Structures are given as C-alpha cells and as structure tokens.
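WARN retry 2 of 3 for item q-0093 after timeout on previous attempt; input resubmitted unchanged.
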Amino acid sequence: MKVAVFSTEPYDRIFLDQANIEAKANHELVYFESRLEPKTVSLADGFPAICVFVNDNVNSETLEILAKQGTRLIALRCTGFNNVDIAKAAELGIKVVRVTVYSPYSVAEFVVAMIQVLNRKLHRAYNRIRDDNFSLNGLMGFDLHGRTVGIIGTGKIGIILGEIMHGFGCHLLGYDLYPNPKFEAIGDASYVDLPELLGNADIISLHCPLTPENHYLINADTIAQMKPSVTLINTSRGKLIDTKAVIDGIKSGQIGSLGLDVYEQEDSLFFRDLSGTIIQDDYIQLLQSFPNVLITSHQGFFTEEAISAIANTTIASITDFEQGNPLKDAVKPPK
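OK item q-0093 returned
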C-alpha cells in the first residue's frame, strides 16, 4: 500500500523501513516531517493509508478531508488515540489501528529513573559539578526502601513498575477501575480508593489512558488530599494533570517533586527543536524554573525494543488491512 507517514524523525524511517523489509510487505512509505492537521492534510491526497503519531491532529475536519482524498486506514504508531475523532472516522468508513503493546518495560523503567533523579537530585548535582561546586548542601534525598508508592492505573506498565518498586522494598497501593489480580500478587500490594492512595503515598505515578472522566484527575482538590511533599510522576497523558493546580501545589510545598514526561500543551512543543525561539507557554517556562521539577519530552517509550515493536506492529496492521484480514489492533468506535 501507499502510506503517508507524518511527524517523522530519522529513527522512524530507519525502523519502519527495516520492518517493511523484514516483513516483505513492500509498502510504499512516503515520509513527511510535518504534523498532520487540517492545513497539511493535502499531503496525504491519494494515499489509501496514513500513519500518524501522538500529537497529530486527526480531528473531524482532518478526517473529512482524508475521506474525500481516498484515505481508508489510519495507523497510529502509538497506544493512545485521544487525538483521533474515532466516532467521525467510523462514520466516514475509515478504519483506525494502534499499537496496543510495545515495551511496557521502557516506560516503567523510565519512571524509576525520574523518581531517582528527583529524589537524589542528580540533575542539580550534575550541573553543580560542571561549575566546580562539590557541595552536598541541598542534595539530600530519602531511602526508597520502606516508602509507599501509589500507582494509578495498573495495566502492563503499572504492573511492571510495581514489581520494580517492590524490589526496592517499597509498599504498594493501587487504584484502578478494573483491578488486576497480578498487582495484588506483588508483595504487600493492595487496591484502595483514590483518596486513601493520595493520602498515604510518598510517590504517585500515573499510568492510565485519557478519558473524559479522568481529564484533570490531578487537580486542586486531589492535590489537597495528597501527603505533603509527595513526589508526583506523569508519563501517561498530559491532560490527566491540571498544570495550574500543580504549580500551586509546588509553590505551597504540597508537591515536593514533579516529574513530567507528558504535558497538556505538548503538541505545540514536544518532538521539535525550539532552542532558537521564544516559547510563549508561560506554564512550561515556570515549571522549568523550579529546582524540584524534571521535564522530559515524551521519551519514556524511546528504547530500541519499543520503537522496533511499534514499527513491526504498524507494518503488520497495514498489511492486514491491505489483505482484508481482521484488524486485531483496531480502535472500536464508542458506543
């Protein structure tokens, strides 16, 4: 099939081309660095399939144009699909597939890295040493052993994070609308309601998809229920967190450390080099000024194993569509 691939970086091309060759799929992959949005959708004219990433804007307007141009398949090379109007796609007869599993270890291990950097203040220590400042003042952390970790969302990534933190000797609390027996099988792990988790966890990590119901799950009210000086980590979806409320929580000391690999306005920032520009987002600029905040550019998934799995799954889904096979990773329209 002829496939228009949007929001591409050099590594996307390397891994997708390799997957295409290994699968002997012979798809014609045409790469565009541009994000997919209404003003760039004309690039996909005549392509029966397109491939997009997390910050491509596949809204109703984009879909209407895609349908008129002959697109019949949208392949997401990611797990989340909140950037796609799934109901509209179904109405237009456009199939949507995603990558349901890549490497849950990549994100879980990244969370542990963020926790340790913030706790032991490695980012600050690194910068000090570069200025020949070898003082330890202000760099004290705490033992993870014996601390309580709250995991909100206990799917594949949440389970693996729980197993790793159990290895550190942490107590585990979980919150999930759909409890997973594998979580309770980890040491002393137990499910509790959300207020109990918020009030008892020293570290809270978010691992849930974005839905209308959990938009701004972390807000002024839930932050007020948290243990003072809590460490909060979000590698899931940016809009799970109300940024203004989190900034207020940092200023008050309620949030002791914050690690963000996602951000609610990331679509205008992440995956691009803005070093020569003046960023107009005051919230991200303020967050970067805090010494107890660590921000990364949605790189939690970024390992060789994960990118390879994403490419292989994407090529396989395109091939299944071309051959009329069932789409096992199809995104079903809402009821």
